[in-house]
Amino acid sequence: MKQLLLTAWRTRGWIARLLWPLGKFHEFLVWLRRLLYLRKLLTTIRFDVPVIVVGNVVAGGAGKTPLVIALVRHLLTSGLTVGVVSRGYARSGRYSLEVTPDTLVQHSGDEPALIRRKTDAPVFVSHRRTDAVRDLLAAYPATSVVVCDDGLQHYALQRDIEIVVFDDSGVGNGWLMPAGPLREPWPNRQFQGVDLVLHTGCKPAFEGFSSSRQLAIHALAADGRQVFLANLAHYPVVAIAGIAHPDNFFDMLRANGLNLKQTLAWPDHHIFKVSDLAALAGQTVLCTEKDAVKLFALRGLDGLDLLAVPLKFTPEPAFFDALDALLTPLISKLPSRHGHETY
Question: What CATH number matches the domain at 2-211+315-342, 2.60.60, 3.90.1530, 3.40.50, 3.30.300?
C-alpha cells in the first residue's frame, strides 16, 4: 500500500485524483491550525536563544538528519555552543530525555542517537519539542543556539530560522496528503515563508541551495576498525538499509565499485531483530550509519562481518554564508535561559 501511494504521488493519476478531496480537507485543516496560532488562540513558546528548525514539507525522508549534523558541526566550528532537540521518531515513550552514549536506541530513536554520536553536542528528545528545549537549556544554560531536527509543523515551538530540505522528488504531484506527498501547501506557505531551501539530491526541481553527498572511502566496524571500500571491491558483499530511500545507498555503493550480490531493504526507522540478519551469517554486510546505531547494539551477530559506511554530506558554502547572515543578529549577548509563553 505504501509503495502504491509513493508511486501515485509522482503524478496526478487516477489514484491521486480519487484522494484529492481528502487532500483538500487536509489543506483546510493545515490552514485552520496555522490561523489559530497566528491569532494566538493556540500557544507558542519562545525561548531566549535562537532556534533553527530543519524540516521538510513532504512526507518521508529528504536528508534532514545529515543536514542537522553538518549544521551543528558548522556552528560548533564558529564557536557557538549548540544543543539539538528532536521528537525521536519511533522511539518508546513520549517523555523528555537526554540522549547520551549509553542511552538505548529504542529510548532515543535512531536519528537522535546518530546526531549525538556524530556531533558530541547535547541532544534531547521529547514528543513535545518545547519540553526538550526547556530541559536542554536547564541542563546546559550556556547554550547559544538550538537546532531542531524536524518540527517544521510543530508551531508550538517558536522558531527564528526555518530551513526546508528537498530531495530529487521535489514536491511530487504538488498535492497534499493523501493525494500527494505534501504535509502543507508549497510554495504558498500561509502567513510566513521559510528562510532557506536546501536540495539534497542531484537534480533540484526549483531554486535553492545545493549540496553534495558521497560515501566515505572506508567503512567502520562496531569496534572502530576501519575497512577501505577499495579492499571490499574484490569480492561480493551484501548491503542492507532501513532508511527512507534504500536504493540511494545501494547505488552509491555500486558507484564506489562494490559488487552487491544481495540487497535487503526495510522501512525507514526499522527496528532490527537478530532474525532479520540470521541468513547472512559469515558474510560481509554493509549498512548505513543510521542503521548501525541499532545493529551494533544487537547481540547474536557475532558471526557477521557488519560494517557501517559513513555518509559525507556537504552543503554548498553559500548556504552557510546565508545561514550565518541570518543567525548573527539573533545571537543575544546576555541571554536569559528560560522560555516564556507568547499569547
Answer: 3.40.50
**Do 128 and 162 meet the contact criterion of CB atoms below 8 Å apart?**
no
**How far apart, in whole angstroms, are the C-alpha atoms of residue 258 and residue 237?**
8
Pairing of strands 123-125, 97-99: antiparallel
Q: At what angle do helices 110-119 and 64-77 cross, to 10 degrees?
A: 30
Q: CA separation (Å) from 219 to 108, 244, 303?
A: 24, 21, 18
The total number of residues written for the chain in this structure:
343
pLDDT in tens, 247-297: 999 999 999 999 999 999 999 999 999 999 989 988 999 999 999 999 998
Q: Is 343 helix (H, G, I), strand (E, B) or coil?
A: coil
In sequence order, the 6+-apart residues with CB closer than 8 A to the CB of 324 are 78
Amino acid, single-letter form, for residue 74? H
Contact indicator for 312, 219 with CB cutoff of 8 Å: no
Name the 3-class secondary structure at 83: strand
Q: Are 241 and 292 contacting, i.e. CB atoms less than 8 angstroms apart?
A: no
CATH, range 217-309: 3.40.50
